Amino acid sequence: MHNRHFSLLRVRPGNPLRFSGPIARVMEPRLKDNKMIKAIASAGLLKGGGEIELLGMKTEIGDDETFSAWPTGPLGKLPDAKKAVEGVQKAIRNRGKPLILRGDGALVYTSYQPPVPTNASMKLLGSRLSLELDGHPQPTVCTLQVTTRCQANCVHCSAARHKRQHETELTTQEWKRVIRQSEQLGAVTVIFTGGEPLLRPDIFELINWVDKDEAVVGMFSNGLLLNGENVKKLVDAGLWFIHVSIDSPDPCQHDEMRHVPGCFDKAVEGLARAKDAGILTGISTYATPERLRNGQVIELIEMTKKYGFDEITIFDVVPTGRLLREDRQHLLSDEDKAELCRIENEYNEGHPRPQVITQAHVNGPTGVGCYAGWCQFYMTAYGEMTPCDFTPLAFGSAKDESVEDMWNRMITHEGYCRHKDSCRMQDPDFRTMWIDKIPASGPFPYPVEKFAQLAHIDPDSELDLETPGEYSSIGIKG
């Protein structure tokens, strides 16, 4: 049995009152002039107290891995606080058996979120309160494309359209500022991607910079640089998970799609090396109607199981890049997505490894819905904030403004101010409104403020399908 106590909201007497803790950002505007809170703070000051806990949470992990929680502190006696803590307990219990029970009693349900309970996981309460009080959650996940450089030249790369020959990528200090601002805004998961993030010389410094009390840190990689030295550096820097992209269970086909001989073997060997070093490991792949019917999706799951990796994430194909408006043959139908959800449920029954995660479920009506601009953002290597790595819409640049300012602009935009129960980039109406109007000449991602200038432009008139290597055909992570 493991018991812990977490301080969720603290106040320090003063004028104005100063709040801290995982839910302070959401609650401070509502409590700073509250008479009861001022009285509690004053009483604490009279008693010689410094910082006073207003609301805490006591947690217990039983021997049977059951999670229990109780509110503490003066606000813990209020019905709303009790209801909130009961909601946390119910949500965690409904997740069933964890993927891993750590030695410290923390429950690991997925690599994409912090273990429960930890200081980082408590920040999810702030996002939940933000949703209930303001109608929109805080960003809990940020995916950072730290470089566009890559050894591979994949025909299906979702990042290819971001490459620019004459523009400087964000510096180490600029990325550090983005990371810290993201943590302060609510991020509990910081993901480095590319290109190939291990090609960036300061990647270990950036991983180390992530405050592990605030967020877990992960990486999407092609696996080519996961040698012994780099894996040790990743462990020392505090990497929580790494997912390697595998396009096919057939090594030759994978190598051909990536245009790198031996890529499959190096990727699998490198991922196994990371697994042995204690990093959570996963395979990242994608589903098409053909891959569902020819059995490759199942083969990839079985391959993940064979190597003992922790997870496999199966993304949908999203038309983007060079064939932004033309390629529809690889899109999944509703029946295809239902089949993927069935496969996920079948493999995850009883929670054996690997855990199967499908975009069809997680980002569909049976899951959370579209994450883009709702609880996550993506940032290009040049600093533009976009809703996700498949969406070519820019809401500002980190070179010019704060993460919070860009986030607020995005969540008040008419395309993102409301929740959507499925992927926007697969929605014909959304694409007609926001994607199909983007000129073929770009720029990519396209600044949303430029849409006012597109009223008299026919995007097809600028179409250039003969430019080799400029854009990708379908969007696939990694």
What does this structure look like?
The structure is a single chain. Helix content is about 35%, strand content about 20%. By secondary structure, it is an alpha/beta fold. A 9-stranded mixed sheet has the order 14-12-11-10-9-8-7-15-16. The protein has a 4-stranded antiparallel sheet with strand order 2-1-3-4. It has a two-stranded antiparallel sheet with strand order 5-6. The protein is built from 15 helices and 19 strands.
Coarse shape: globular
Uncertain runs: 461-476
**Radius of gyration computed on alpha carbons:** 23 Å
Structural class: alpha/beta
What number is the mean pLDDT? 89
State the share of residues found in helices, binned by percent: 25-40%
Question: β content, as a range?
Answer: 15-25%
**Helix count from the secondary structure assignment:** 15
Query: Order of strands across the widest beta sheet?
Result: 14-12-11-10-9-8-7-15-16
> What's the story with the biggest beta sheet?
9 strands, mixed
CA-CA gap between termini: 40 Å
Number of strands: 19
Summarize the helices and strands and which ones pair or pack:
Blueprint (H helix, E strand, L loop, with lengths): L1 E11 L5 E3 L3 H8 L3 H12 L5 E10 L5 E6 L6 H15 L6 E2 L5 E2 L10 H16 L6 E5 L26 H14 L3 E5 L9 H7 L6 E6 L6 H10 L3 E5 L5 H8 L4 H14 L3 E8 L1 H5 L2 H12 L3 E6 L1 E2 L14 H15 L6 E4 H4 L13 E4 L5 E2 L6 E2 L8 H9 L16 H8 L10 E2 L26 E2 L3
Parallel strand pairs: 7-8, 7-15, 8-9, 9-10, 10-11, 11-12, 12-14, 17-18
Antiparallel strand pairs: 1-2, 1-3, 3-4, 5-6, 13-19, 15-16
